[in-house]
Amino acid sequence: MRRLCVSLAAVAVCFALPLPAGASGDFECSPSWRLRHANLSGCDDMALLGPGNDTRTNLTMLLFDRRGSLPRPGKGTPPPPLGALFDWRTFSGWLVIRPENADSEYSSGEGSRCLSKSSGADAFEAAVNAARLPGGEGAALIAARRQINPDCAKPSDGTAVTAVEGQVKSPVGKAFAGYLAGALAFYDGDFDTAASRFSGLGGARDPWLRETARYMTARVEVNRLQVGMFDEYGIPRDFKNVHQNVVDAADAGLRAYLKDYPKGLYAESARGLLRRVYWFGSRRGPLAAQYVALFAQPAAARALNDVDLAEEMDTKLLPDLTIGDTTDPTLLAVIDLKMMRTADSEVSAGCCGTPITLDQITGQRAAFAGNMPLFDYLVAAQQFYVGKKPAEVLRLIPDAARQSSFSEVQFSRQMLRGMALDAVGDRNARGFWLEMLPGTKAVEAQHSAIELAIAYHDERTGGLARVFAADSPVDDPTMRGMLLMYVADAGLLRKQATGAKAAQERQLALFTLLYKELSRGVYRDFTTDLALVPANAPTDGSIYSLQTPDPLPFGLFTKPTQLGEFGCPALKRTVADLVAAPGDAHGRLCLADFFFANGFDGYTLDASPAKEDLGGTRSLFPGGNYSRLEVYKSIIADPRVAADDKAYALYRAINCYAPSGNNSCGGTDVDKSVRKAWFQRLKGDYAKSRWATNLRYYW
Questions:
Q1: Do residues 310 and 59 touch, judged by C-beta distance below 8 A?
Q2: DSSP structure class, residue 236
Q3: DSSP 209-231
Q4: Which residue of 108, 301, 419, 587 has the fewest C-beta atoms within 10 A of its own C-beta?
């Protein structure tokens, strides 16, 4: 199932239809910045073959390898760079640049029999003109054809066709008129009449008529087959009730046409329709064989680029294809990788069924006789992702890091070896990644994947500073930013705030430094580092734009104005008070008001990535994540706090749950009974305070 319904119109069908194997869906992605992706998320495709990739991505990369070529961006407007992690929509859009109004190819399927009404009319006119019919017959036939304007929803006006059948007298003219009658019946859904008319033209003298009638005879059966097969949204229904005799008739008709016209006018369309027929008939073996035949052809010859081929296969074949349906190594690899999917977090627990066993893969050895590197990779991948035996990977995949370039399988093999080296704690792992790096220059997604590998390794081996060294190979601003935001200590943040080459990184480092100093109680250093904020720094802008080039609102830290309901002074004055007395309740309440007023509740710098992700290790910046609720709780519990400060802390703590009853201030939740007790205490002990007067409810 797709992970998300993307429009209200789709909601009605979203939960009723099994969608293409590994489809990613059209939604905003939040990738998991790691190398090991054992389960499909739709956001974490990489340039290495793996179970976490969309099935279409794995298939497309294998097709590139099968041709001995590297993936290149499509011609046209240059697409954005393809990074270490991407989704299928991004990858396919990078490979194939499409006009916004591009239509789907007719050969990809018979979505509507009216799809060809325009091209069919043009071809008919050309054939009639070429036939040089006598006595104005050609003009009459063309005029009659132009009167056929079907919409496939209601019967057409057949007056002109009936009239021209009585008007033309020549044998060829009569044959063309008979063809028009068949076309009218076809578009009106009268398939018996259409079949009779077209089959009667099998011996027509005109070559266009003879070939087209053969093709249309088969096409009639395809359309007969798909009656009632799609709902009002164009979504396929259950194919269990398909009439196999109609499947046989359509199959026989299309194969007969292709036998006589292997390079005919409609050969590409007929092959596309034949795949559709096998899909309807749930004939996975013949359908797989059709796609395997396409694998051997260049995209131009098959009139179907790699992206469209992967999309079609993901709809028609891959969801139900099993390792018993094919012996093709490309298809087996796609199936094997999909069957390696295992839960890689509590969120995905129960996601994937029983993963493929080692015996199931080794039993396919004969099918990979001509591609043992791919076979060995699949065995090693099963040991890594399913068996969790990285040492076996090192035994199965020899070191070949030093290459001038990598095919998809070569890159996947060496990436898996590098991941295994890191998993067993090999001291040469970083050197291995560095040796791979020069060979990835030609494919940006490969290069970015190595950058991620190096950044991930350095973070987890106490080498964070190497990521930010002058000669660091890690240039990706997102990776560097995540490490600064979630892991870096004050010294590294200060160094990058003043010395990073990129302005975006300098402002991210400084904003992170100031926020963490302020929220973690490093008040004296905050006062010093505030001097790094430029004069007239903006106060507008999003505090969440840390990973963008948009200016950050540094002016929030330097505003000279008073703040909030509590009569707090400017932030600089509040911090000076806290430097002198870090535990001062009034100062801490004013600091909390600063965070509240500027939208820092639940701030991204008080979160952290999953422990398996880049940035997921323990922060080197001392102090825990900030929570206004915890500040209020500590002040409420302190008997030395002045009455007005205590009342304000109670007031603010209760309001953390307004108006929904959910805590918006962070920290550890308290039961409603506790909030009730706070409310009663405020109304009782501090009844004369304006905070008690202003508060009418608790939540």
A1: yes
A2: B
A3: HHHHHHHHHHHHHHHHHTTT-B-
A4: 301
Q: Which of 372, 452, 448 is CA-nearest to residue 614?
A: 452
Length of the chain: 699
Q: Which amino acid type is present at position 256? A: A
Can you say whether residue 25 is alpha, beta or left, with left for phi > 0 and alpha for psi between -120 and 50 degrees?
A: left
The residue to which tokens 């004013």 are assigned: 590
Neighbours of 342 (CB within 10 A): 18
Question: Any residues with CB less than 8 A from the CB of 593 and at least 6 apart, and which?
Answer: 563, 564, 565, 566, 568
- Confidence (pLDDT) at 260: 96
Q: Where are any strands of DSSP class E within 564-662? A: none
Instruction: Report how far residue 46's alpha carbon sits from residue 632's, in angstroms, rounded to the nearest whole number.
Output: 45
How far, in Å, CA of 314 to CA of 320, rounded? 10
Between CA 604 and CA 313 the distance in angstroms is 40
pLDDT value for 108: 44
Cβ 623 vs Cβ 521: under 8 Å: yes
At 472, is the secondary structure helix, strand, or coil?
Answer: coil
417, amino acid identity: R
Tokens 């069919």, located at residue:
120
The distance from CA 120 to its chain's CA centroid, rounded to whole angstroms, is: 38
For residue 523, the SS3 value is helix
Distances (CA, A) of 76 to 89, 98, 299, 491: 17, 8, 18, 45
Q: Residue 273: exposed, middle, or buried by beta-carbon count in 10 A (0-12, 13-18, 19+)?
A: buried
| Encoded tokens for 560 | 């000279």
Other C-beta atoms lying within 10 Å of the C-beta of residue 685: 14
pLDDT tens per residue across span 277-313? 999 999 999 999 999 999 988 888 888 889 999 999 9
Q: What residue has token string 């099998």?
A: 202
Residue located via tokens 């009218």: 184
Q: Which of 328, 269, 261, 254 is nearest to 302 (CA)?
A: 269
Determine the distance from the C-alpha atom of residue 134 to the mean position of all C-alpha atoms in its chain, rounded to a whole number: 60
Do 699 and 675 form a contact (C-beta atoms < 8 A)?
A: yes
3-state secondary structure (DSSP) of residue 568: strand
Q: pLDDT band for position 77 (50/70/90)?
A: low
CB 189 within 8 A of CB 152: yes
